[in-house]
Design brief:
There is one protein chain. By secondary structure, the protein is α/β, with parallel strands linked by helices. Helix content is 37%, strand content 26%. The strands form 4 sheets. A 7-stranded mixed sheet has the order 5-4-3-6-7-9-8, with helices on both faces. It has a 3-stranded antiparallel sheet with strand order 11-10-12. Helix 8 (189-207) packs antiparallel against helix 9. It is globular, with a radius of gyration of 21 Å. The N and C termini lie far apart (68 Å). Bound molecules: S-adenosylmethionine (SAM). S-adenosylmethionine is lined by residues 30, 36-39, 42, 46, 68-71, 73-74, 92-94, 97, 119-121, 135-137.
Length: 370
């Protein structure tokens, strides 16, 4: 057996038991050394991808690609946990990753998984898959063109971005350079950042005459994640581009709106995705499995609830501070808005955030009543 050149230990995640390097572990966006990287914090990300894959694969024999596989944990979990007819290719151009993935496939006795060692862009320009997972260090931008082309009609592209400092506005120039969009550092920066990512995917897809439909998106810890269903053709592309616009604010009302048109003096961020980040009918019967992490259940519950409301979320702290009142309890705000006949929900983006279709005047009146 090839000497890996680093010590390994066994970890258990989901139904998988795999070997990971002993040294490179921990939080954060990941390390770039040649040693394969396993990040336990990404377990929720991988739990959700198992549930999405279980539901989104079309009928027949499917081909799944874990394109930037690292230790192979995600693809191995797919092979063990997704009860559909498919085979999965775990790909990583890094030699030690490839060796480790082969061992991990063997260790889990998998017949429906194999390892590859190609440059992801080269692989995607030659082959097509029903589901492609792109989970890079930092930005997914260098892979997006090929990833969009490498997904079959009606298939799904899953994208992670860990460059949240750019997308959420800590480094706005980096966001303009990479995504051609202006972010906004604020209490609601992560929803804006995620919408910039999805909007960028839509604009890139349009270059290839493809439309995207996000079926599930989330912002967790240090990363954003979105699952995009792809539709081919001019009509789908044109419809999709109508869902890219700007975040604007009417200074007199303090109301934040998502608008198709770029209105002079009102735009505060964008271009970005202005439609739903989720497909509520897809989310409806997604249930975490008993062995998955508690965080996965929490996020799914919140996503199901907030996916019904296509308005940007409000930070209760921000509204309270503008009005110079105490921040009311979130449950009280949501109940108050619902009692008045509006839709209202907590959001996974912020424990003090809420989403509603109520006009800003109504929200402010409620806060003043507290
Ligand atoms: C963040 S890690 C992947 C983590 C993994 N998906 C997981 O869930 O643990 C990114 C991986 O992409 C690989 N990589 C980077 N550029 C690549 C390319 N052009 N082609 C193939 N692999 C690449 C790196 O070697 C690294 O292992």
């Amino acid at each position: 057996m090839v000497d890996l050149g680093f010590e390994v230990e066994e970890i258990v995640e989901g139904r998988a038991r795999i070997l990971v390097p002993k040294t490179v572990r921990g939080k954060g966006p990941g390390k770039k050394e040649g040693i394969p990287f396993y990040n336990p914090v990404m377990e929720i990300n991988r739990d959700i991808s198992v549930l999405v894959l279980q539901k989104c694969l079309p009928g027949g024999k499917n081909m799944v690609l874990d394109g930037l596989a690292g230790t192979g944990i995600r693809g191995i979990r797919f092979a063990l946990e997704v009860k559909r007819e498919f085979s999965v290719l775990l790909n990583d151009w890094n030699e030690p990753s490839y060796e480790l993935m082969m061992r991990n496939i063997k260790r889990n006795d998998l017949q429906n998984a194999e390892a590859g060692q190609e440059d992801l862009n080269a692989l995607l320009s030659a082959e097509e898959f029903d589901y492609v997972d792109v989970d890079p260090y930092g930005t997914p931008v260098p892979f997006l063109d090929n990833a969009l082309r490498g997904v079959k009609e009606g298939g799904v592209l899953a994208v992670t971005a860990t460059d949240t400092a750019a997308l959420a506005g800590s480094f706005p120039k980096a966001c303009v350079r990479k995504y051609g969009a202006t972010p906004l550092r604020s209490k609601t920066q992560h929803e804006i950042g995620l919408r910039i990512l999805v909007g960028y995917c839509a604009r890139t897809a349009a270059n290839h005459e493809l439309g995207i439909q996000p079926i599930l998106s989330h912002s967790t810890d240090h990363y954003y994640r979105t699952y995009l269903k792809l539709e081919h053709g001019q009509k789908a592309t044109d419809n999709c581009l109508k869902k890219v616009g700007y975040l604007s604010r009417d200074p007199s009302k303090q109301e934040t709106l998502m608008e198709r048109e770029k209105k002079e003096g009102r735009v505060i961020a964008g271009p970005l995705w202005i439609d739903n980040l989720w497909d509520p009918s897809f989310l409806k019967d997604l249930r975490p499995r008993y062995y998955m992490s508690a965080g996965t259940s929490r996020i799914l519950e919140l996503l199901k609830s907030e996916s019904q409301i296509v308005y940007p979320f409000y930070s209760s702290d921000e509204i309270a501070s503008r009005l110079k009142v105490h921040t009311p309890r979130l449950v009280w705000i949501i109940e108050g808005l619902k009692d008045d006949g509006y839709e209202a929900s907590a959001t996974h983006f912020d424990p003090k955030g809420f989403r509603t279709d109520a006009p800003i005047e109504r929200i402010q009146r409620l806060f003043k009543k507290n």
